[in-house]
Amino acid sequence: GPFAWVSAGLLLNAALIGGLGFIVGCTLCYALAVQGLPRANGQTGLLAPRALAVDVLTGLAISAPVFWLFTQFLAINLPGLTDTGWL
Prior knowledge:
Oligomer: single chain
Distance between the termini: 33 Å
């Protein structure tokens, strides 16, 4: 169970990062990993819509600034959703 959630996050990130961009791929990876890790401790009830929304928003709040810092300050080309370099 928990291994499947974390593995799905990593595999989806690898599969989607080129097409949907770094921010979307990492947000999904974070949200799925956060669903899997508490399950390893036996916690349940994590699929509530509010919990999923918090996980996605937290992943977005982490991945968007990381993308921006890497592309704008370090000049590292990460795959983006648009060609502008901002998303």
